[in-house]
Each structure stands twice: as structure tokens, then as C-alpha cells.
Amino acid sequence: QVKNKAPAEVQITAEQLLREAKERELELLPPPPQQKITDVEELNDYKLRKRKTFEDNIRKNRTVISNWIKYAQWEESLKEIQRARSIYERALDVDYRNVTLWLKYAEMEMKNRQVNHARNIWDRAITTLPRVNQFWYKYTYMEEMLGNVAGSRQVFERWMEWQPEEQAWHSYINFELRYKEVDRARSIYERYILFTALVLVHPDVKNWIKYARFEEKHSYFAHARKVYERAVEFFGEEHMDEHLYVAFAKFEENQKEFERVRVIYKYALDRIPKQDAQNLFKNYTIFEKKFGDRRGIEDIIVSKRRFQYEEEVKANPHNYDAWFDYLRLVESDTDAETVREVYERAIANVPPIQEKRHWKRYIYLWINYALYEELEAKASKRTRQVYQACLELLPHKKFTFAKMWLLYAQFEIRQKNLPLARRALGTSIGKCPKNKLFKGYIELELQLREFDRCRKLYEKFLEFAPENCTSWIKFAELETILGDIDRARAIYELAIGQPRLDMPEVLWKSYIDFEIEQEEYEKTRNLYRRLLQRTQHVKVWISFAQFELSAGREERLPRCRQIYEEANKAMRSCEEKEERVMLLESWRSFEDEFGTDATKERIDKLMPEKIKKRRKLQAEDGSDAGWEEYYDYIFPEDTANQPNLKLLAMAKLWKKQQQESEAAAMDPDKDIDESQT
């Protein structure tokens, strides 16, 4: 029993106990005492104890092969070869599939120069485990080291019957080459090539290349070329590999057969998919740079770019920008048939959606195709066919391209076929009328001086788009040029009478300018009055005043001043104060140039005062967004604002007095000096 159960003064944790135990494990144990055997009895006793230990270990676990190997190696160290052999045999009975056991057994026999025993073991090993390549390598190496070339060859032959992997065949070939047996090596290559062709599902190109290089290395160039040709024939066009053609081309390059090299590269590039021919193309480029002329190098560059464009259009056939680049390339360096083929491939990729925005790039493929046929190929019939095919393809009920119709008509005119051009433009207007088509057709007839046709087209045009002010103006200008003033004036009257116009201000200005050119000032004034009934825009008033200033001779200044007076009265109710300021500025400029002192003083009194104000801003969600400063104009004529103006003037006067009093308070000496003075 423990009398003192109080805790110890120094406490120790479980972690410290474990750490201390681990540290003590690392302490060096004293070496066992050396035992010196002095006579035979002690030796036999030592052997007995060791054998008993080994046997006990084996008895405990027979499947641990390391115990057997240690036992056999110990017997071997005592030169007890027979006992060691017996132990290995017992171990093989336990596990004959253990590769290490066979290797140790054979190495023991070879180490002790028991050649026949070693042969016997290797024979048993390769018979029992024929798929273990290490046995075959060791066996053939032993026979070769013993100088038994025939025996080693016989082992190789036995090995080849098992159809081993590639390295085994090459080991056999290298063995024959070490003894200068080139014919035997060639026959082995033939057997191996035949084996790969018949047995393997996907034969490898590198075996053919090695065979050809073997022939080349031994200066059998005709045989090497024959091997390459057989390889090309064997793989055909379905399983073409760029490495085979690169090796073939380099072989021919070494033989200075440059034309053959060029033919090989071109044959391969035409048949191998582009994505699998990067290395082939790179080597072809290097070859042309070394041995080709400028034309050959350019061909290489062009073919490389063609490959890139082919990949792009294959990845996305509707990438029309890639098609444009591709077509520019082929147009610059290939024949007409190739260019036509690429164009046909390009235009076959019709946009899947019938929306004009998807067709805008596509239509230029047709335009470029037609221009190429006309300008480069000089084939007018094909050009006409291209235009007609494009126009048939377009969905005119949904949208059309006026440029296509106009280009076709211009082409027919260049071919001196005016009826066809008119028929095309007439068809376009009938199927899908557009402003651009009318304008193009009218321009054509104007160039041909067919004014009656122009009149009819303008009538059709204005029936189609009566709101188009430009068309009205052009029609009136045509009549003016032809000298029919009444028709021109009637056209203007019809135009300004339209209920809806896209640019009415341009139309009115053109009509007024027309009357001014005809020096019909009263009609011009009436036009201004009619226009002012529709709009009170400040620019109309200013233009009216300037017209009066330039039109009359004696009464021009009173008339002009009267217009300004009317405008000022009309603009008093205008909410846009900037426009009223603009009017007064124009009036003041007029008075500065032509007025008297009284009129100048009067216009100065009419000028507004510019003041700065603040207004509250609100955000989109209705929250307060702060204050904004802006400028406002206060006109003296506005009686409603007179009290505000008076109050503002009094505030300014009070502020000025305050500033003066503050300045006097800050500088009293100055006031004393002034009083003394």
C-alpha cells in the first residue's frame, strides 16, 4: 500500500513519456560479442544453430521467399553449393512464379561458373514463364558473354516465336548487327514488319522508319527507298501519318533528290488533314527555304494561310470575315476555277435567319463574286448568272438589298443592254420599292436625259413615300432646271400640303429660296406668313427679317424693324427664353448697323437681365438629389416680374452698402486721414 498519496512535486505527461521512450530507442545498443571458431566441432555447432534458425523461419511462413533466399545465400557463402541448390529447388516448389527466385538461382550458378546448371535453370525459367522478358535478356546475354553466338541466336529465335514486344525484336536486330550480320538483321526486320502488319490492329509507323534508316545507314539506298514506298502503300490514304512522309522526304533530301522531296511533301499535304500536318508543313517550309526559289517559298506561305483559313471556315462556316480573307488570298494566287470553287462554297452558307442584319455581310460575298467574274475573269455571262441567282435567293417580301439591284443594272448598262437594266430596276420597284432604288433609277434616267421617264418615276416615288421632303425638292428642282416654273411651284404647293413630312423645315426653306430666286417677293412674304401660322420658331422670324432687309430697297429698314417688333410681341408668351434672347440679339445687331441712337437705346432697354437661380433635383426613385444652379432671364417688358426686379435692385444696393461699411470699419486710419484732408 502507498502511504503518501499526494501528487508528486514534478508532474510528467503521457506525451513526455512517449518522447523519452522514442529517444531511448535511438541509443546504440552494444554490439554482440565476436565469436571466434577455433575447431571443427565449434564450426559444425555454429552451422547447426544457423540452419535450425533458418529452418524454423521457413517452417513458420513458407511463402516468405526472402527467408529462402537468405538461407540459400548463407549456404552459398559457406561454399555449400549443393545445399544452396537444394534450398532453391525447395523454394521453387513453393512458388515457381517468383521472378526474383529464378534470377537469384541462375545468378548463383553463373557466379560459381556452373554454366550448364545455369543453362538448365534459364531453360526451365523461360519454359515456365515465357512472358517474363528479363529471363530472355539474361539468357541471351549469358550466351553472348560465353561466346556462344549460335546458342544466343537460338535463344532469340525461341523468343521470337512468342511474338514479344518491339524492344525484343530490336534487341535481336542489334545482336546481329554487332556481329556484322546485315542480311540476318534485314530478314528480322522483314519478319517484324510482317508480324506488325498481320497481328497488330494499328501498326506503328516508327518501325518502318527504323527499318528504312537501317538500310540507309548501311548504304542500301535503293532498299531504303523501297521500304518507304512499301510503307506508303501499306498505310494508304486512310491511315496516313505525317512522320512517315517527313522521314521519307528527309531521306530523299539527303540523296539530293529535291524534286522527289517536293512531290512527297505536296502529296502528303494534299491528303493528310490539316490539323495533323503541322510538323509536315514546318519541314516543307524549311526545305523550300533551303533549296527552293522565291516562288516556292511564296507557295508555302500561301498554303499555310490557306490551311489557317480552312480551319476557321470549317469551325464556323458562317464566319463571313474569314471567307473574305480566304477569297482575297485565293484570288491573288490561284486559277479561276479554284476561286470559283471557293466562292461557291462561301455563298452556300446562307444565313439561317431571314433578318437583314444577318445578311449584311453575306451579301458582299455575292457582290465580290460578281465583280470578280466581270473584272478578273471577264465572263459576262457568268456575271449575269451570279446577279440573277443572288436576286432569286433574297427574300424580297421581308427585305431586299437595293445595292444589289443597282449593281446589276449598272452591269447591264456597261454591257450596253439598257432594256435589261430598266427591266431589272422596274422589277425591283415592283417587288420591293425602296427610296434608294427610286433614287438610283431616277439618277440613271437623268444621265440618259430621259426627263419624261424621270417625271413618271418621281410620281411613283412620291406615291410610295409622300413624306420624303428630299424627293419633293429634287422633283421641283428638276422642273426648275427644265424651265417649267409653274410645275415646280405646283409641286412645292403639293409638298407643303402633305399632312406628314420628315423634314418640313428643309422643304419650306427650299420653297422660299425658289421664290427668292424667281424674285417673287410678295409670294415669298406670303410664304413666310403661312409658315408663321404653323410655327413661331425664332429662326423663322430672324430669316423673315433678314429677307426683308435684303429684298426691299426703300422700305427695307422699316419692314425689317416691323418684323422684329411682331416677333418680339409673339415671343413674349414663349416658354423658351433663350429663343427670345436670340431674337433680341439679332435685333440689336440690326440696330447697331442700321439704327439710330433712339432705336439702339430702346433695344437696350428690352434686353433681359441674366440671374443665377437654384432649383431642387429629384432622383429617378423620387429621393432628394440636391440642388442645381441655372441661369434665368428676366425681361423688363414682363410686368409680372417688375416687383421682383425692383426687389432685386434694392437687394443689390443694400449688399453694396454693407460691403462699404465693412471696409470702413476695418481701416479707421484711412477715415481719419480723409477727414483731416
From TrEMBL:
It is found in: Nucleus speckle. The keyword Transmembrane does not apply. Keywords: mRNA processing, mRNA splicing, Nucleus, Phosphoprotein, Repeat, Spliceosome. GO terms for biological process: spliceosomal complex assembly. GO terms for cellular component: nuclear speck; post-mRNA release spliceosomal complex; precatalytic spliceosome; Prp19 complex; U2-type catalytic step 2 spliceosome. Belongs to the crooked-neck family. This is Crooked neck-like protein 1. The gene is Crnkl1.
